[in-house]
TrEMBL record:
Gene3D superfamilies for this protein: MetI-like (1.10.3720.10)
Family from the record: Belongs to the binding-protein-dependent transport system permease family.
Source species: Shimia isoporae
PROSITE patterns tied to this protein: ABC_TM1 (PS50928)
Keywords: Cell inner membrane, Cell membrane, Membrane, Transmembrane, Transmembrane helix, Transport
Name this polypeptide is given: sn-glycerol-3-phosphate transport system permease protein UgpE
Spans through the membrane: 7-31, 83-107, 114-135, 147-168, 189-211, 217-236, 248-270
Main localization category: membrane
Length: 283
C-alpha cells in the first residue's frame, strides 16, 4: 500500500533532485571546462560557469591537425572510427544472435541443446581471458589496423542469443502452423513474423550493444598501431597520459564531451523502444 502524504512527496523529490545533481555535476564541469581557454583552466579556483570559448575549442578539437597526446589524429576521425566500430558490433551481434536463436528454437537437429549450452558457456570466457589467442588469430588473418579486426572478435554474443531464444519461445506454435498452411518457408517466417514481433527487443539490445562497442578500450588499444584507426576512448586516455606535454584541459574536456554525444543520441532516440523491449513479456 502506498501512502500519499505531503512530506513523503517532498522528501522523495529532494532525494531525486539530489541524485540528479550528483550524477550531472561531472557532466556540468566537463561542459564548463570545454568553454574556457587553456590558461583559465590552469588558474584556481576552477570556473563553475561557462565561458566564451566553446566554438573555438570545438573547431580546434574536431579539425585540429595535432591534439595533445593524440599523435596527430584528428578527433573527427576518432569519432568516425568509434561510430563504425559500435555500429558493426551492434548489427553483427544482433544478426548472428537472431539466426542462432532461430536455429535453436525452430529446427530439430542432433545435439541441438548441446550447441545451445556450448554457446551459453562462452559467457564464462570474456575477451580479457582469450585475448592473446584471439590477437594471434586476428594477426594471422591480416586484420590488424582494420575495422574487421576491431569488430569481428567481439561480434558473437551468447547473451543476445539467449535473450532472442527466450523471446522466440513465447511466440505461439499456432503462428508457425499458420505460416506453414499459407505456404511460408522458414526464411519467410523468420523475416515476416519473427523479426517484426522482436522489434522492441532488437531495439533494446541495439542500445546496449552500441554503448558496449562505443566504450571498448582494451581490444582497440591492442590491435591498432596506426593512428588513423584510433578510437575516441583511446584518445582521451592518451591525452591524459601525455605527461611530457602541458595538459590542455579545455581540449580534453571538449573531446570527452564529444565522446558522450553519440551514445546519448542513441539512448534518447530509441528510449521508447528501449523501455518496451526490456519490460514487455507477452507477444
Amino acid at each position: 500500500m502506498v501512502e500519499h502524504r505531503p512530506y513523503l512527496t517532498i522528501l522523495s523529490h529532494i532525494i531525486l533532485i539530489a541524485g540528479v545533481a550528483i550524477i550531472a555535476l561531472p557532466i556540468w564541469i566537463t561542459f564548463v571546462a570545454a568553454t574556457h581557454d587553456a590558461v583559465r583552466m590552469t588558474q584556481a579556483p576552477i570556473p563553475l560557469w561557462p565561458g566564451d570559448q566553446f566554438w573555438p575549442n570545438l573547431n580546434r578539437t574536431l579539425f585540429g591537425v595535432v591534439q595533445p597526446g593524440s599523435e596527430g589524429a584528428a578527433v573527427w576521425r576518432m569519432l568516425l572510427n568509434s561510430l563504425a566500430m559500435a555500429l558493426m558490433i551492434a548489427f553483427g551481434k544482433i544478426a548472428i544472435s537472431l539466426l542462432s536463436a532461430f536455429a535453436i528454437v525452430y529446427f530439430r537437429f542432433p545435439f541441438r541443446m548441446g550447441f545451445f549450452w556450448m554457446i551459453f558457456i562462452t559467457l564464462m570466457l570474456p575477451v580479457e581471458v582469450r585475448i592473446l589467442p584471439t590477437f594471434e588469430v586476428v594477426a594471422n588473418l591480416g586484420m590488424l589496423n582494420s575495422y574487421w579486426g576491431l569488430t569481428v572478435p567481439l561480434i558473437a554474443s551468447a547473451t543476445a542469443t539467449f535473450m532472442f531464444r527466450q523471446v522466440f519461445l513465447t511466440i505461439p506454435d499456432e503462428m508457425l502452423e499458420s505460416a506453414r498452411i499459407d505456404g511460408a518457408g522458414p526464411l519467410r517466417f523468420f523475416w515476416d513474423i519473427l523479426i517484426p514481433l522482436s522489434r522492441t527487443n532488437i531495439a533494446a539490445l541495439f542500445v546496449i550493444l552500441f554503448i558496449y562497442g562505443w566504450n571498448q578500450y582494451l581490444w582497440p588499444l591492442l590491435i591498432t598501431t596506426d593512428t588513423s584507426m584510433t578510437t575516441i576512448v583511446m584518445s582521451i586516455k592518451q591525452m591524459l597520459e601525455a605527461a611530457e606535454q602541458t595538459l590542455e584541459w579545455n581540449i580534453i574536456m571538449m573531446t570527452a564531451l564529444l565522446a558522450m554525444v553519440p551514445p546519448v543520441f542513441v539512448v534518447i532516440a530509441m528510449q521508447k523502444l528501449f523501455v518496451q523491449g526490456l519490460t514487455e513479456t507477452d507477444k
